[in-house]
Amino acid sequence: MFKRILLSGIAGAVLAFLMSTVFHIATHLGEVGVKGMANEDALISVLRAQLHESGIYYYPGPNMAPGRSKEQVDADTAAYLAKYKAGPNGILIFNPGGEEFSFPKHILNQFLFSLVSGLLLAWILQTTATATSYGKRLLIVIVVTILGATIYTLPYWNWYGFPCNYILAELFTWTISWGVAGLAMAAISKP
Predict the structure, then answer these.
(1) Does residue 186 sit in helix, strand or coil?
(2) Is the pLDDT of residue 151 over 90?
(3) Based on the number of CB atoms within 10 Å of its own CB, is 35 exposed (0-12), middle (13-18) or buried (19 or more)?
(4) Average pLDDT, integer, range 100-120
């Protein structure tokens, strides 16, 4: 059982990783909805002057200070909602210090994420193998992929305003990538 889990997990990870690479390089679906900023240097100067800690920053920023009275919370909420309505609004992931970009490190991390996911999926497939057919095991991979993608991707659209085309491209690429991986995983994970 352990060998099948290991083989299925590795095969799934490799196939999903390769498929997502194809989607990013050949189709550019990984870039859908992502844009550069005009006058980036001026914006970076302002960010460096105003933000000094790594973090996730919302704008407009709600007042989240502890110890406020109910009246203060109500007033802060009304002010926040007015600013949000007036716009602009968004989210910024910010790191104040620079660092060397290491493509090999990021690619290795991405593969390791795929490997962990593949091994978890392989365990599910192998533990259900006696009660499932090849088609049902493949369907399990696809459903788990869609579940994971919707749990983690749709809230980014809902709460943070990620572009709809970005979200749809993410859902599509993950579903197809792991669907292809599932073809091999379902065949390996048999009773």
Answers:
(1) helix
(2) yes
(3) exposed
(4) 95
In single-letter form, the type of residue at position 15 comes to L
Q: At what angle do helices 2-22 and 164-188 cross, to 10 degrees?
A: 150
| Contact of 30 with 171, CB cutoff 8 Å | no
The secondary structure of residue 55, as a DSSP letter, is: E
Instruction: Pull the structure tokens for residue 148.
Output: 């994971």
By the 10 Å C-beta count (0-12 exposed, 13-18 middle, 19+ buried), 133 is classed as exposed
Q: In the predicted model, is pLDDT for residue 1 greater than 90? A: no
User: What is the average pLDDT score of the chain?
Assistant: 93
- Tell whether the torsion through CA atoms of 155, 18, 29 and 143 is positive or negative: negative
Cβ-Cβ contacts under 8 Å for 179 (sequence gap 6 or more): 138, 141, 142, 145
Band of the pLDDT at 99, cuts 50, 70, 90? confident
